[in-house]
Design goal:
The protein is α/β, with parallel strands linked by helices. It has two domains: 255 residues, 3-Layer(aba) Sandwich (Aminopeptidase); 102 residues. The chain has twelve helices and eleven strands. The strands form two sheets. Strands 1, 2, 3, 6, 7, 8, 9, 10 and 11 form a nine-stranded mixed β-sheet that branches. Strands 4-5 form a two-stranded antiparallel ribbon. A hairpin with a 3-residue loop joins strand 8 and strand 9. Helix 9 packs across helix 12.
């Protein structure tokens, strides 16, 4: 099936302006996406919702600072009091596991209505008695941050290195009855982790990012799929093209949509194909795991890999870095298999994410086309 890569790039470029949830830019993006879906001949609806991100950010800061304090104390006490240090570190790792794992119960923090108003945009091709539902997802909002994506990932890695290194030091020491090594090693490992966590606790969001890579390119692909797939899918397959709002505020839009619609999807197989960061120069990428090694959907990963092999599209599977959020997570929490398609590898386009430099010029037309073809082929295979 052919896709129009030039049109994908053109619409992605048109959408690449700051559009943090609740702003004028966000409302403009909602109107643009709704218009494109109507032009595709779909039944279109905009489902408004409000939320308050404050409780989640306050809980996150308390958790980060509390965990950092425990790790720092564990590092200081590693040699003089290794057993107390081990208990402190165990509590810190337990708290960190909650943060890194995106536990479903944490979504309660986002259930509160608030002053931020935005909307999910839905284009739907209905059928009377659907045998299968396919949900295609890409968020339309963007954000800037004082700590851009690479810095967040780097600080998370430093936290893990410091904490796990300290854990290894304590385990070996307790096994032989004495923590050996330089006296400064424990405090250094604990200090690196604690400093990284304290820095992460300063994270703030703003409205300076044009969001070219994150996530205008993916929305462009979603619009192209909305045009070409309805005519290719079997008549008994329901197709839903969902452009979520507030993904950048911890996936609130996906949660709201699922809470409203998940019961309507019961009784038949439902699969979600998420697009995020598509168009970064390089090969197609599949985000297959998240949190502490949790799998999104082995079945969908296998289907995507089969489609990529048939299309001769190089495909790399990878892990979503710990503590990073993506719309696929709320789907999996509600029992709907979901996998995320993206592209590229670490480079200037990725470094620019969540900054004022995330322009549409960072998108690569060939990468956009590859991901669009791969998602379409995976969907058609599922529909058969």
């Amino acid at each position: 099936m052919r896709v129009d890569a030039e049109r994908i790039e053109r619409e992605a470029s048109a959408l690449a302006f700051p559009r943090y949830p609740g702003t004028e830019g966000d409302q403009r993006a909602i109107e643009m996406v709704a218009g494109w879906l109507r032009e595709a001949g779909l039944e279109v609806s905009c489902e408004e919702f409000t939320y308050d991100i404050g409780p989640a950010f306050r809980a996150l800061r308390v958790l980060l600072l509390g965990t950092g304090l425990l790790v720092a104390v564990a590092g200081i006490l590693a040699q003089p009091q290794p057993q107390i240090a081990a208990w402190c570190l165990a509590l810190a790792l337990l708290a960190g596991g909650v943060l890194l794992g995106w536990s479903p119960w944490l979504e309660r923090l986002y259930s509160r209505e608030g002053s931020t108003r935005t909307a999910n945009v839905i284009g739907r091709r209905r059928c009377r008695q659907p045998r299968l539902s396919l949900v295609f997802v890409a968020h339309h909002d963007s954000k800037s941050q004082n700590l851009t994506l690479p810095y967040r990932a780097g600080l998370t890695i430093l936290t893990l290195v410091g904490s796990l290194g300290l854990a290894a030091l304590l385990i070996l020491g307790l096994a032989v009855g004495q923590v050996s090594g330089p006296a400064w090693l424990g405090p250094l490992l604990g200090g690196v982790a604690a400093a990284s966590l304290a820095t992460l606790s300063t994270l703030k969001s703003g409205n300076r990012s044009p969001g070219g890579v994150d996530n205008a390119g993916s929305v462009g692909i979603l619009m192209e799929l909305a045009r070409v797939l309805p005519g290719e899918l079997p008549a008994d397959v329901e197709a839903i093209f969902l452009s979520t709002g507030a993904e950048e505020d911890h996936m609130v839009g996906a949660m709201r949509w699922l809470d409203r619609h998940v019961s309507l999807l019961s009784g038949r197989p439902t699969y979600a194909l998420n697009l995020d960061g598509a168009g970064i120069p390089g090969r197609a990428v599949l985000l297959e795991r998240y949190g502490v090694g949790r799998s999104f959907s082995p079945f969908l990963s296998k289907m995507a890999r089969r489609a990529a092999e048939r299309l001769e599209i190089p495909l790399r599977g990878t892990l979503l870095p710990p503590a990073m959020g993506i719309d696929a997570i709320p789907f999996v929490h509600r029992g709907i298999p979901c996998v995320t398609f993206t592209s590229g590898s670490l480079g200037p386009a990725v470094v620019a994410v969540h900054s004022a430099d995330d322009h549409a010029e960072n998108l690569d037309r060939d990468a956009l086309e590859r991901v669009a073809r791969l998602v379409a082929a995976t969907a058609l295979d599922l529909a058969r």
